[in-house]
Amino acid sequence: MKQETLFVAFSTQKGGAGKTTFTVLAASYLHYLKGYNVGVVDCDYPQHSIDKMRKRDASQIDTDESYKQLAFAQFKRLGKKAFPIINSTPEKAIETAQDFLESDARKFDILFFDLPGTVNSQGVLGSLANMDYIFTPISADRLVLESSLAFALTVNELLVTNPQIRLKGLHLFWNKVDGREKTDLYEVYEKSINEFGLPLLKTFIPDTTRYKKELSTDGRAVFRSTLFPADRRMLKGSRLEELLIEIAHIIKL
Question: Pfam families recorded for this chain (predicted)?
Answer without folding.
Answer: CbiA
